[in-house]
Structures are given as structure tokens and as C-alpha cells.
């Protein structure tokens, strides 16, 4: 690279960095700083350096074990489902059949609905007094009286999973679809000539080609699952008991209920560290190395 | 620190300086005027001297300068330029915003020298928003407050006791229902902090249609009667889930915990959670909390007269559930009955407010106005403006001007008549000039019963043995250990035997003691 190139690159990056620095890097750096402070908004006069105290406090808090289990359970269930379903949907939408355009449009609908509204919709669907799900089951004679699904541990978690999948499906589906549409037709033709059948073509051409996309979708899904808050807040509020109280829910609680900014920042940073570790693990597992989306 | 209501009050001899400066304000202005006139006179003399001196030393340019200076000074001092309006920022949460704006506009039209600017801090974000504003040194002049956080504002020195500056505020105290009065007194100083936004209760309610269909003439007066009536209603197929208990959202504390403890706590040890040294006593089989949980678990899991649905209710769902006939007996804020018992609610006209079974006591719900310390720091003009606004929104005024003797509770009346949010002032329920208050609520509640309920409310927020005023308390209890643990108990996930209840309560007590040790204010 020549000296002039670097100058050109820096000038080119300037517009983007002028936003990223004040609105992304600075808040992250400030949060890191706050996580090292005893920063309780209820006692603003007593803000002081606390080293790693906040980290120790959140790691030994009464909620850490339960919320870690809740978060891991949620991630382990949702991420594979999201990858598989979006891949399946993309496969369907990449076919040529009548109405595919309408289906492609339909897939995008959840994207247009704000997360809180989506949460409210799913909460109403499973409402214990007038939920349509209960009405449906009762009309089929499967239940005698309405069931408070969100008061039952696994059903409540399942409702969250369904709501999460509904909300998050559009982007991974579009990514996979874009990936599939970028596969050169010649590859499939050559494979057909070589006598490859449907599954073999899918496995060796489609999946191989989509590996970088799969990495992006996996990373995206994992991060979204780890940081899911809106749906939990609206649908279960962490319940029943604290069965669905994922870590992001307690990050919010530390910040806005307990007003303890130091502990909230520490908790958020711990999750960021875990997220980074997971992303590295994904890169290694899928052996993608540097992502190149162009052939 | 042990908080008690008999905290030392500020003696009259300790009248604050600011108050003194208020009383002598006119004298101070006169003195300032005299000083200014003296200064002008000096300037005129000096100017004349200068003029004469300049005349002998230089040309006409200097003459022009001196003349201008003297003229400006004289004009400015003698006519006293009009002082600008004092802006009072009114911090609210997002409820009834149109009415708030309209009230502010009315006040502004009636007052030339003070103007209200409404600042909305959101609903769920109100506490964090106000706290952040205080921390940033930019709090509103006057704002709503809830009893769970009022003490935090006071303890941090963020909010002031208005009685310190305006002793006449004390006249309002006798007009407040006895069960609420402690909520307006700063427990550390014994002084009144502010006036009331509104007040009410979480009373017992029932569906009269269900009772009529079951052939029950009177609502229950004891918990045994309530159980019996619920059994009859269920047996006759009128309602499958007659006892509805709101455990979700903030209903968990104020209804699920305190309404039942207050109603059931007859005799020793009373409805208390902690002893005088703030040691937990709720983790005992004789405690009010244990007894109320025992009764509730029996109703849900043994008798099947109640369900766990209430765990899921937020306030809107609670209103919808009772309004749609999902339950026969229910407890929720009194103003919510205005929505549940009027069209298009399914059970409109069938719902009644009643007296809580057992002791009759129910938990109080009230909101107050606080004035920020920053306002006092700005000086007497700002403080007086805040006091005028406080009297307008929570006291007696006439045409927007304070008038305790002959004025009316203008904003409180509008809140009641237009929003169903009841006044906390006894005179508004008894004085014939407020007949419209009773008339306006007749369509959804019997005013006489509501008045009785208000006399039966208990301010559990300000009894240290029921609610310690630690800053950590609210978050800890609401969203921390207690709520998920008791929810698990209610749902049957933690077992339903006496030992199971005790195990859960012991765990909460253990966490409580830990929190107490960490607390900066709970010692």
C-alpha cells in the first residue's frame, strides 16, 4: 500500500467513523469506565473507583446462576432453530413457483413490526383469559378451561422462542436467499452432468457456498438471542418465577430498577466478552477465516 | 439509622434564613432601591464633576459619553425594569398528559409572572429519569413522586420540605385522610414535604351479578365468609375462578402482599414484616405474611377457588380480567374500577367496591408533589413560584392564585371528575361545594363506600415495620429476590406445604439480612 492510499482510505472512512466514534466507541469506552466505578444513581455523591468489585458482585449475585441457565437454554434452543428454519425458508423462496413473490413479501412482515408490539401480540395470543390459542385448543376439545401458559415454565419459554423466531427470521432468510441467488448455475449443471442428485448437490454446492452466510447468520442469531430483552420484558417479565429471566433482563434491572450503573455496565461487559468468545469459536468451527462474500 | 416518625422537628426558633429573607423581602427591595438611587446620585455628581473636568480638559466627544451614561442609569433605576416570568418546570409521568397540559395552560393564563412548562419523564422511566436529572443538576422545579422513592429524594438532599419555607402548608395536613398523612411528612425532619397529587386505595371489589345469581345477599365480611361464598359461586357454575389475586407488576407488593396481610392481621404481631430493629419477622409461622400466603396457596392449590392467572396480570390486564367477569372477588386500585365498571366493559354496572374482609384495612395508594432543592437554591422568587404552582396542582386556589380559606382544589377536582382519580382531601368528600365529586363517580362506585375505604387505608410505605425506607428496598423487593421466589411459591413450583413456605421466606430473609448489611441507609 502506498502512502497516498492510506490517506485516501482514511478520508473515505471519515464519514463513517465520525458517527461510529461518538455513538459506538465512546459509549463502549465510557461503559467500561463506569463498570470500574461504584456508580449508584441513588447515591450520586458516593461515586468512586471500585476496581473489579462490580464484576465480582454480579458474578456472585443471587441471580447469576439462574439467569445464566435461562440465557444458555434460550440460546441453545433458538440459534439452531433460527439457522435451520431460515435456511429452509430461503430454499423455498429461491424456487420458481406461483406466489413466491407474495411469500417473499410476507416473510418480511415481522421485520416491520416493532419488537415491543410483537411481544404484546404474542402475549395476547397466549393470554390466560382471552387468548386465541386457548380458544383454539378449547374449540378442538383439547382443554376444558383456559390454561395460563405463561405461568408454566417450559411453555412460557417456548412462547418466547416462538416469538423470537417470528421476529428474527426475516434477516437470516434474506441473507441465505441472497447467498443462494449468488451461486452460479453452472455449478449445478456440472454436478448434474456428473450424476449428482438433489441432496448431494445441496450438500456439496449449496451448503458449501453458503458457509460464510451461515457464519454471519449464526453470529447474528447468537448475539440476538443473548441480548433478547424486549420480548422477555413484555411477554414473561422474567417469569414464571425467574425461569426466563435472561441476563439482559437483569442488566436492565440493575440499570433501571436498582439504578446501579456500575453493576449494569459490568454485567453488560461480561456478556460482551462471552459474545466475542462465541464469535471466535464460530469462526474456528466453520473454518471460514476471512469472510469473502464474492466468488 | 432507625427511622421514626417522632424525629426531631425543626423548632420555630430555627426558622430558616430563606424564610426570614422572604418576610423581609420588601424591606430588602426598598434598601436596594435606596442604594441604587444613591448610586445614581453619585453617578450624577461624578458625571457632573467629570463633565466640568472634561470641559476644561477636552473636546465635545467626552461630553456626549458622560451624558449618555447618566441618562441610562437614571432611567433604569427609577422605572425598575419589569422582571421576567419565573418558569416552573413540572415533571410528570405519561398519564393524563392532555389534562396536565390543559391545567398548565389555565395556570399560565391566570398568572402573569409565573409560567408552567410541563416536562414528561415517561412512565416506566420516570424514577430513573428524575434521578438522572437530579444527578445531572437539572431537576424539574416540581414533580410527581411515589412513596417508595420519596425518601430517596429526601435522603439525598434532592427534594426539600416545603414546610421549612412555607409553614402554612401544615394547614393542609388535617384535611388529608388519616391513613395517608404520614406519606407527606419527611420522617427525618417531621416537616411536610409537599401536597397531594391524588390518593386512593387498593380496595376489595366484588361482582354483584355473580353474588345475586348465587343467592348471596351481602358481600363477605370475614375471610371465612369469602371462601364460603366463592365455593358457592363455583359450585353453581357461575364462575370457575372466583377469587382473583393480582400478583403481577406492582400489584405483587401492594395487592398480593399488603392487602392480604392488612386484611388478615388481626391481633399480634400485626401486619408487620420487620421488628423495631429491622430484623425480619415474616419468616415465621405466626407472621401475617405466612398466614396470608398459606390462605392464598390453599385457595389456589387445594380449594381451587383461585388460580395463578393473576401472576401474569399487569394493571391493564387486571382491569380487563375483572371487567370481563373472569373473577368474582378482586383487589385493585380504586380508580381502575372506573374503567372496569363502565361501558364497553362486559360487566359494566355489576361491579362493586366493598370493605376488605377481616380488619377492613387496605393498602393506600397516593402520589405527592415534591419541589427540588435546586429551586430553593435559585432564590425566593423561584421558591415562591413553586409554592404557588404546588397549591394550584395540589391545594386550594381561586383563579389560579393561592387561597386556602376560600379557594378550591381546582386540579384535584378535575382529576376526579375527568379521570376518576380520587382526591385525598377529606373536605372534598364532605363539603357540599364539592358535591360534583361524589356525583361524578356515582356511575361506577358508591361514594359513601369509597369514603369509608379511604378512612380504612393504611400507609404501609411509611411504617418501617412494614416497609423499610432503604433506598434498595423497592427494587430488591419488586424485581429482586422476593417477587420471583413468592411467584414460584404461588405457582406451586416451590411446593405448597408449610415447610415450603417457610423455606422460601427464610431464603428471602437471608437475602434481606445481606442487603441490610450492604445498605448505606438501612442501619
Count of domains of chain B = 2
- Secondary structure: helix percent of chain A: over 70%
Can you tell me the CATH topology of the largest domain in chain B? D-Maltodextrin-Binding Protein, domain 2
- Helical fraction of chain B: 40-55%
What is the typical, i.e. mean, pLDDT of chain A? 91
Account of the 3D structure:
- The complex is a heterodimer of chains A (295) and B (523).
- With 295 residues, chain A is mainly alpha-helical.
- Chain A is built from 14 helices and 2 strands, in the order αββααααααααααααα.
- Chain A has a two-stranded antiparallel sheet.
- In chain A, α3 (64-93) packs across α7, α3 (64-93) runs antiparallel to α11 and α11 (211-226) packs antiparallel against α14 (261-286).
- Chain B is α/β, with parallel strands linked by helices and 523 residues long.
- Chain B folds into 2 domains: 67-199 and 368-439, D-Maltodextrin-Binding Protein, domain 2 (3-Layer(aba) Sandwich); 204-364 and 458-518, Periplasmic binding protein-like II (D-Maltodextrin-Binding Protein, domain 2, 3-Layer(aba) Sandwich), CATH 3.40.190.10.
- Chain B has 22 helices and 12 strands.
- In chain B, strands 1, 2, 3, 4, 5, 9 and 12 form a 7-stranded mixed β-sheet that branches. Chain B has a 3-stranded antiparallel β-sheet with strand order 7-6-8.
- The model of chain B is unreliable at 1-79 (pLDDT under 50).
- The A-B interface holds A 41-46, 62-63, 127-130, 145, 148, 150-151, 153, 237-242, 245, 253, 255-259 and B 124-125, 127-128, 131-132, 134-135, 152, 156, 240, 248-249, 307-309, 311-312, 317, 320-321, 324, 326, 471-472, 474-476, 478-481, 484-485, 487-488, 491, 493-494, 511, 520.
